């Protein structure tokens, strides 16, 4: 959790004045918000336990305005936090007390949908789902589908390398973006990637995607579109224990099948969602798997038969196959509504995100079960099982003293287990502020220094979303000592962050 700090009013006036002076007079006041009443809605993202009122919020309506804002900030040495819809779950868009939030909310135009090239060119504030809606008239859609797709923006998706149910078969954001236009802190526009499948030179597009707003501000994105499959069907398979369900996931992939989606929900998740959504889930199962096939009618029929055989062989206790589009949507509705449903059984939840080799699913689920006892908190598991991307939802009550701290410690222990079994501390939600200490567990100093060098290559003054995602040596030293000495005041001689 963060302790909010406030910034002197004089500095706020100075920076707001400089920004307004650089913008056309008729828009200056609507683009630059400095009254705390106006900036309050931006004080957090989806990780609402972390809050900080920004000094200023800017809402540019053009790429030129983005460049002007960056230039003023560079001149006055003001940190900048880019922001899309603020649905991020790791505090990536958490403001900085003496910083400017640069929101892309008004850069929300679909520039072009090219049905022949199967691409769309969009501004960064366009919502993920709006791209598919615009492409639907051509029988096309944008495949990466975060559960937040109704709200989250493509700029945020690029910054987080977001995933979703369909990413197992169709790839993450990085596999579905061809080109980005980026405003740099130097006030230049650069283009990474190209409209073609490859671009000359080093693959800086792949470096940029997933860089969490620390290298530049995305001002335009070209995405790939894919044809909507003719048919899709989903299997709901029940299992008597989570270990068998975890092993069934590995068996599907080992059988050479790449489902269009392969998701797992444990008993806590199923029982939390079913009364809310009435998806028809098996509430007696210890875990259910949702496994989708898409393609032509013939391909789907053949794949569903193979998947069914694998699940039967892997010990499924019941299998249901959707018989209509309405039933398929109903099966998915429970999975898609799992996060909101958590609010019905717990005042607060803390959503972790770690990725592990699929064959380790059973071991990690067992480990989480044991940690529920250790930390005295419940955890529900609903996640992208096919990708090995776990989303443990730790349930707690913010009003109970110490529960949030215990939830944070529980989350950090899960991430440490992910690293121990050969996985990573994030799958799709990024590092942001939430997991910055866990970066010290995952990486050594030399690797972290190399990440800083990449940042410096794009952002010499270190003003773009600083203090996020990459921990400083001091931070790791503090974190290490904290853990070794059980909370004793660490390294008093080092500056605190
Ligand atoms: C209910 C729920 C379900 C979710 N499900 C999924 C899921 O299935 N898969 C998944 O991957 N994520 C999921 N998320 C997390 C979140 O929606 C994604 O990380 C999403 O990509 C964030 O987009 P945003 O527009 O809200 O970005 P924000 O939260 O505003 O910002 C996220 C990061 O991107 C940076 N950023 C934003 N715009 C720009 C830009 N134009 N240029 C440079 N940097 C920028 C910010 O600085 C920040 O670091 C979920 C969140 C919620 C609340």
Automatic annotation (TrEMBL):
Cofactor: FAD
Protein's recorded name: FAD-binding protein
InterPro entries found in the cross-reference section: FAD-bd_oxidored_4_C, FAD-bd_PCMH, FAD-bd_PCMH-like_sf, FAD-bd_PCMH_sub2, FAD-linked_Oxase-like_C, FAD-linked_OxidoTrans_Type4, Oxid_FAD_bind_N, Vanillyl_alc_oxidase_C-sub2
Gene3D superfamilies listed in its UniProt record: 3.30.465.10, 3.30.70.2740, Vanillyl-alcohol Oxidase, Chain A, domain 4
UniProt-listed PANTHER family: GLYCOLATE OXIDASE SUBUNIT GLCD
Key words, A-Z: FAD, Flavoprotein, Oxidoreductase
Coiled-coil ranges (or none): none
FAD-binding PCMH-type domain sequence ranges: 50-228
């Amino acid at each position: 959790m963060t302790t909010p700090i406030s910034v002197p009013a004089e500095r706020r006036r100075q920076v707001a004045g400089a920004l307004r002076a650089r913008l056309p007079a008729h828009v200056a006041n609507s683009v630059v918000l400095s009254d705390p009443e106006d900036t309050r809605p931006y004080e957090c993202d989806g990780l609402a336990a972390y809050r900080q009122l920004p000094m200023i919020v800017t809402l540019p309506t053009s790429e030129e305005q983005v460049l002007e804002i960056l230039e003023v900030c560079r001149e006055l040495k003001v940190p900048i936090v880019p922001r899309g819809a603020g649905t991020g779950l790791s505090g990536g868009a958490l403001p900085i007390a003496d910083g400017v939030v640069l929101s892309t909310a008004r850069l929300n135009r679909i520039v072009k949908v090219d049905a022949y090239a199967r691409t769309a060119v969009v501004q960064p504030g366009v919502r993920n789902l709006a791209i598919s809606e615009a492409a639907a008239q051509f029988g096309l859609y944008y495949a990466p589908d975060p559960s937040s797709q109704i709200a989250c923006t493509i700029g945020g998706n690029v910054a987080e390398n977001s995933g979703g149910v369909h990413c197992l078969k169709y790839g993450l954001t990085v596999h579905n973006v061809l080109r980005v236009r980026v405003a740099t802190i130097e006030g230049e526009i650069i283009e990474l990637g190209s409209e073609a499948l490859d671009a000359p030179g080093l693959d800086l597009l792949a470096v940029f995607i997933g860089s969490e707003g620390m290298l530049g501000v995305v001002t335009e994105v070209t995405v790939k579109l894919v044809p909507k499959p003719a048919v899709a069907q989903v299997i709901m398979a029940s299992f008597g224990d989570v270990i068998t369900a975890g092993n069934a996931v590995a068996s599907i992939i080992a059988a050479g099948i790449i489902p269009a989606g392969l998701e797992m929900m444990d008993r806590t998740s199923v029982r939390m969602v079913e009364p809310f959504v009435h998806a028809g889930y098996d509430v007696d199962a210890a875990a259910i798997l949702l496994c989708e096939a898409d393609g032509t009618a013939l391909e789907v029929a053949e794949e569903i038969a193979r998947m069914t055989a694998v699940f039967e062989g892997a010990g499924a206790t019941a299998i249901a196959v959707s018989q209509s589009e309405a039933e398929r949507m109903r099966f998915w509705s429970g999975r898609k509504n799992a996060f909101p449903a958590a609010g019905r059984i717990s005042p607060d939840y803390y959503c972790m995100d770690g990725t592990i080799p699929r064959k380790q699913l059973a071991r990690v689920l067992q480990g989480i079960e044991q940690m529920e006892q250790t930390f005295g908190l419940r955890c529900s598991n609903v996640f992208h099982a096919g990708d090995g991307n776990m989303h443990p939802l730790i349930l707690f009550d913010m009003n109970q003293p110490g529960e949030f701290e215990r939830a944070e410690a529980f989350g950090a222990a899960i991430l440490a287990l992910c690293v121990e079994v050969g996985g990573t501390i994030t799958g799709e939600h990024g590092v942001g502020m939430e997991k910055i200490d866990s970066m010290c567990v995952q990486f050594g100093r030399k690797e972290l220094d190399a990440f800083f060098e990449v940042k410096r290559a794009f952002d010499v003054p270190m003003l773009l979303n600083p203090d996020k995602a990459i921990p400083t040596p001091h931070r790791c030293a503090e974190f290490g000592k904290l853990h070794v000495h059980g909370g004793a005041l660490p390294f008093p001689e080092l500056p605190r962050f």
